[in-house]
Design goal:
By secondary structure, this protein is an alpha/beta fold. The protein has one domain: Purple Acid Phosphatase, chain A, domain 2 (4-Layer Sandwich). The strands form two sheets. A seven-stranded mixed sheet has the order 4-5-6-7-8-10-9, with helices on one face. Strands 3-2-1-11-12-13 form a six-stranded mixed sheet. The radius of gyration is 24 Å and the shape is globular. It comes from Caballeronia cordobensis (Burkholderia cordobensis). This is Membrane protein.
Length: about 450
């Protein structure tokens, strides 16, 4: 009897049809994910805005102004939610939590020097900084959500069993860009010179290196187009110490204090090697900046070569209670990032975003050296690292590209005959990875 053959045939046909449908759904979802990753992205960075109770009202207005801009995906508060002269009392932190959590836009809080590291001073109430850090962790970082009235889910390092206490160290992704938020305060990353084990610093340094390097590996595997690292402290990139295997043979000791940012800078070099794409580092600085921020490429590896795919943005807003740094990114732009300082007065006028300059010679700040071309991240399958089961070891990172030129890391002379094409079609070899957008008359007047 052959009556079973048609039934088997129908079953095979249905199985093939189901496989085709599943394949179409998979490739459609994959294509949609890449399309979303190529979409434009804009986010805001604020810092040092809350220094006294009188600052709470203008900061609320600033957060409301940012919230009215539908193009801002999220806000990063880059440290110092209290002033240097304010005591580290519970009531101060609770009041600031209410201000930041009222933001309409998701807000990612990163801790800074005044938030816990300086609490041991008499002006701050002579608190134990480690105890204050634990209190801040429990108050601001209770779950995986960022602050604010809109949802933004973060991956916290506390999800890793080895680092349960480090709730403030986070990472997230948006429109094809990976973000890493660290707890790296000034001054000198809370490195204490007293005798004995520097327990808090040493444990946090290990956690920071682990998170930074594994986040870079995850971003590479998931084909992120850029990596943005944010923290509060100024790591003094000009002071990069080489590894010396025979330092213990030298009996002379330097009077210069130990660099508390040394491990961070080594991890940034390694993260840039792992990721291979554009890496943007944003941090605060006490140095005055006429434009509100400064762009350069100061990091060198242990051979003294410039890390050409890492660009630093040092932030120093003139009016932190009413100004913020807006960062725009688009995969179709060359270079892919643009910066400008915005003001509450500008948002009230509802002015459109100024168009980008037509030639590099029109920029108000000098260019920084740019590598020949960023290597395309590996096309390995999307192997997202589990949050609770990260690997103990990573594959050997690829060799790092050589510097783009022998020019100094900050200044690059403009070309004698700039290209006629627009920045969107310019070659990456002739442009830095990010450049500032000239301020509009309204924003310039508000500075």
């Amino acid at each position: 009897m052959n009556w079973r053959t048609p039934r088997r045939t129908h079953r095979a046909e249905r199985a093939v049809a189901a496989a085709l449908v599943c394949g179409a759904l998979f490739f459609g979802t994959h294509r949609q994910a890449h399309a979303q990753g190529d979409a434009p992205l804009a986010f805001a960075v604020i810092a040092d805005a809350l220094t006294r109770p009188a600052d709470e009202a203008p900061v609320r207005r600033m957060l409301d102004a940012i919230g009215r801009d539908g193009g801002i995906a999220f806000i990063v508060y880059d440290g110092n939610l209290k002033g240097a002269a304010e005591p580290c009392r519970d009531s101060v932190y609770q009041s600031r939590h209410e201000v930041l959590d009222a933001s309409r836009t998701p807000l990612v809080l990163l801790l800074g020097q005044r938030d816990w590291a300086d609490c041991s001073g008499a002006h701050a109430g002579a608190y134990d900084p480690v105890e204050r850090l634990d209190f801040v962790r429990q108050l601001f970082f209770t779950d995986a959500n960022a602050l604010g009235q809109s949802a933004l889910t973060l991956s916290r390092e506390s999800d890793v069993a080895r680092f349960r206490t480090f709730r403030e160290i986070v990472r997230w992704q948006s429109q094809g860009v990976a973000f890493i938020g660290l707890n790296v305060p000034s001054p000198n990353n809370h490195y204490l010179t007293a005798g004995g084990r520097n327990g808090e610093f040493e444990d946090r340094a290990v956690a920071t290196s682990f998170w930074l390097e594994h986040a870079a590996e995850s971003a590479r595997r998931t084909d992120m187009r850029a990596l943005v690292v944010l923290f509060q402290g100024d790591p003094d990139f000009s002071r990069y110490e080489h590894r010396d295997r025979f330092a213990w043979l030298r009996f002379s000791r330097s009077n210069q204090p130990r660099d508390g940012f040394l491990e961070l800078k080594r991890s940034l070099v390694k993260a840039a090697e792992i990721f291979r794409g554009p890496v943007i580092v944003i941090h605060g600085t006490d140095a005055p900046e006429p434009n509100g921020f400064h762009i350069d490429q100061p990091l060198r590896n242990d051979k003294g070569l410039i890390v050409t795919n890492l660009t630093r943005v040092a932030l120093a807003l003139k009016k932190p209670q009413s100004q913020w740094l807006e960062v725009q990114s688009d995969a179709q732009w060359h270079p892919p990032f643009r910066l400008r300082v915005r003001d509450v007065k500008e948002t009230r006028a509802r002015e459109p975003i100024a168009p980008p300059p037509e030639t590099p010679s029109q920029l108000s700040t000098p260019f920084v050296p740019y590598p020949d071309a960023y290597p395309t991240p590996s096309s390995a399958p999307h192997l997202g690292l589990p949050r609770n089961d990260l690997p103990e070891s990573l594959p050997a990172p690829p060799s790092m590209p050589l510097p783009a030129s022998d020019l100094p890391p900050i200044l690059t002379p403009p070309q004698s005959s700039p290209p006629q094409s627009s920045p969107q079609s310019s070659s990456p070899q002739s442009l830095p990875p990010i450049f500032p957008v000239p301020a509009t008359p309204a924003s310039a007047a508000g500075k």
